User: What shape does this take?
Amino acid sequence: MSDNVLVMDHPLIQHKISLLRDKNTGAKEFRELISEVTMLMCYESLRDLPLKEVEIETPIAVAKTKVLAERHLAFIPILRAGLGMVEGVVNMVPTARVGHIGLYRDPKTLQPVEYFCKLPVDISEGDVIILDPMLATGGTAIDAINSVKKYNPRTIKIMCVIASKQAIEALTKAHPDVKIYCAVKDAKLNENSYIVPGLGDAGDRIFGTK
Ligand code: URA
Assistant: This one.
């Protein structure tokens, strides 16, 4: 597998993925699980965050210790299912900014149409993590990264819950500089481009719209 992809197969994550896959898991539990998986995934995907040394007085002595260096970190959920991952990441990094991007493919021209894009103003000085729980064909993620790249962030990563083999190949080819963090890789897509076995429509399951 390409060095650009990190599959986070921690037992806690795998257990929660099984609950997410279960069609009997309702919207409330599904939302909570997506948040929990996202929080656990933050652990690896933010491993390279820079630190700075500070002095803190403990009740016993002065300690030289480390805190996160100020750095512009932005999470950008792809509408709509990416919204389900926001709570998890802001729980982990409350100072991070959150941008939003919404796009779809025009069925006639097959060109991406961006219908919403609101990104933090200082994105060009910062690191971006794009959020989308399901990478099926990879097309939307590729288009979202193309849009975000216009603002020249320092680095771009993408975090998803399930990625298809096809999406990983397409994304790695289109954006070899973007590291992909996923919890699990599924082998194939069905005729409607749903991931098999997947977990169904993540947006519908998060927002209870089906
Ligand atoms: N989006 C989803 O929510 N589920 C899939 O299986 C594919 C795309």
User: Anything to note?
Assistant: The first strand starts at residue 5 and ends at 7.
